[in-house]
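The data are quoted verbatim for completeness:
=====
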Amino acid sequence: MIAIVSKDRRNIIGCQSIKTSTILAPGKGPKYILNGIDSYTILGEHSVVLGMYAEAEDIEKEIEAIREAVERGERTYILQYSMSDEDN
């Protein structure tokens, strides 16, 4: 479990795992979403959107940075590569 802090530093989400998804009709906005899985129930997993990304390289760098933070035993991670509200 790692606590992930949103880029605007307004939200902290305790994540058991993360997943990516593609936005099917992105237009000019983001193409990818990073979801944090914060709990599992009988009905399935509960996810929270952690960040949005314009390019595949950005979300890949974010996942790698989160993986490294987990390996180092860090308890929190601040998103570094997600788009900010000004980028949308």
In short: The longest helix spans residues 56-71. The chain is about 20% helix and 40% strand.
